[in-house]
Write a structure and sequence with these properties.
274 residues; alpha/beta; 8-stranded mixed beta sheet; 12 helices; 8 strands; 43% helix; EC 2.1.3.15
């Protein structure tokens, strides 16, 4: 069991040195071919996606992208997608469905971009369409929350057959600062909110919200990228092998039933879990 407090975990999850989607793609996949644009409006740099091979197997990979420095942060809108990003994700998911490719998503966002222009271009509808589409897919879908999973902007890429979390990642309905502002009218109480919200990987595993917690090196994933990559590679291979036993509509049915059963009980922990 981790010795970090929920507040400390939030800080680790937000550490700019943690590996992001581009790093995971580079380390875990080969022959990555990025695909851009939503075919309606524009390219959204905060969603990275395309086709790749995982141990020789064609897959579709999609994830949030924050950037590693201020220039990249601005280009990626600090990992907060607009509707174009979610429509791009839908385009890639439909393509994966057409060609029978498993989908692997990496979730790391404070939330979808809440700006006026995003709402004018259909932000809510784009997220809702992502949720509906992922619910109906007949290919295996695995989502890994790698850092910060915030609100519907995170859930839009996390309606999966298996939802995994890195040990010090967090996943919640909104940020601790937002929670404290709404509940107590005081954003400075965000540390207290971290404990109340039950946003850690361990809390969510106990509640049946995620199906696996992947160990991180001491201090967090940013302290040893290679160890994190090895853990994630093993987990993806294991989960894909398990999902290969289900075919077509059975995958959509398993996904639906898993989300319907959330919070009702917890199956035994797996070996790689904390």
């Amino acid at each position: 069991m981790s010795h970090y407090t929920p507040e400390e975990k939030v800080k680790i999850a937000r550490d700019p040195g943690r590996p992001g989607t581009a790093d995971f793609i580079s380390a875990l996949f080969t022959d990555f071919f990025e695909q851009r644009g939503d075919r309606q409006c524009r390219e959204d740099g905060s969603i990275l996606g395309g086709i790749a091979r995982f141990h020789g197997r064609p897959v579709t990979v999609i994830g949030h992208r924050k950037g590693k420095n201020l220039e990249e942060n601005l280009k990626c809108n600090f990992g907060m997608p607009g509707p174009e990003g979610y429509r791009k994700a839908q385009r890639l998911m439909r393509q994966a469905e057409k060609f029978g490719r498993p989908i692997i998503t990496f979730v790391d966002t404070p939330g979808a971009y809440p700006g006026k222009e995003a709402e004018e271009r259909g932000q809510g509808e784009a997220i809702a369409q992502c949720l509906a589409l992922m619910s109906s897919l007949t290919v295996p879908v695995i989502s890994i929350i790698t850092g910060e999973g915030g609100s519907g902007g995170a859930l839009a890429l996390a309606v999966a057959n298996r939802v995994l979390m890195l040990e010090h990642a967090v996943y919640s309905v909104l940020s601790p600062e937002g929670f404290a502002s709404i509940l107590w009218k005081d954003a400075s109480r965000s540390g207290e909110a971290c404990a109340v919200m039950k946003l850690t990987a361990q809390d969510l595993r106990r509640g049946g919200i995620v199906q696996g917690v992947l160990r991180e090196p001491e201090g967090g994933a940013h302290t040893d990228w290679e160890a994190t990559f090895r853990t994630m590679d093993a987990a993806l291979r294991k989960e894909l092998a398990a999902l290969d036993k289900l075919k077509g509509p059975a995958l959509a049915r398993q996904r639906y039933e898993m989300f319907r059963a959330m919070g009702r009980g917890l199956p035994p922990a797996r070996e790689e879990e904390v």
